[in-house]
Amino acid sequence: MSEPAAIGLRGVSKRYGTQLALEPTSLEIAEGEFFCLLGPSGCGKTTTLNLIGGFVAPTEGEIWIRGERVDRLPPHKRSVNTVFQSYALFPHMTVGDNVGFGLKMARIPSRDAKTRIEEALALVGLEQLADRLPSQLSGGQQQRVAVARALVNRPAVLLLDEPLGALDLKLRKRLQIELAQIHREIGTTFVYVTHDQEEAMSMATRIAVLSDGRIQQIGTPEQIYRRPNSRFVADFIGESNFVDIDLSRSTNGRVYLADGTPVPCAAPPPAGGRGRATLMVRPESIHLSASGDAPVETLRGRIVQTSFLGSLTRVAVACDAVPVPMVAVLSGRDHLAASDLVPDMEIALWWQPGDAVLLDESEPEKGGGT
User: Fold this and answer.
1) What is the pTM of this model?
2) Is domain 239-359 annotated with CATH 2.40.50.100?
């Protein structure tokens, strides 16, 4: 028999009075995953985390951790620890005492507790700071103490509720790397809540994108980015170009804009598709050609803005067939240099058929699956 999932939600929902915070949701998170719950404020991601941690009770459904049903158990009886954005360190205790507080409550013998505290602090690189108070630490160091305190009890699951949200951008990026490294070293299942798509993409093995209390899509960062299943997901994860498609005229390998302009798309249109759909193409997939030479159909337009971003150049192109300017991002290896691209310049833009995604505008099924 295969081992049970680290976390299983079976038809779990949460309602606060008349407000449905989380629609009936079924989800499995495997042992050792770094799983991110991603979405805008009010989407249900923190509610989901609190349900797993036992801080709120589900309105309906079952919650399982390592094959044990836990939705009727209080938080302290679940093999789960949580790191909050506020860190919640005891200001009057040293770093070592903060980390060892859970072991003291569990009545772990002093000798064993000392060894485990040292191991936890070494894991987060703070073994030299055990005697300091939290007020003597930087924000990043306090965050690592909170992680060490959560890990010292060796939980089956570590829940992290936007733990980097209060830090500046440079420190956040560094700690993203450190958290991912800690996860790889210990192999504990991480469930991480964030509204920052770049943060989720940089650390997660899988991501669940939520909106309005519903999981919209679950997949690896690459799957979510390259093959989003809805306009919401495509728009929330990274930057996208969207164009309206006339499905009634579309065929395999080619679709048509509302004015009849053909554009490349490898994905076949929906069976029996009629009316309009949306085509998505990422800015880095768009190529520009001043001469108009291209291996596939092109859109023609004029440059309205170029932005030099160091290793990248962002180009906005107004096309007659598209109501909103198309955005292309060129790397330093592209044959067109930033100095070649000037406002009002006539230009052709195109993409490979496989780089375009034809979005199904029907709503995803509730729950999102596994």
Assistant:
1) 0.86
2) yes
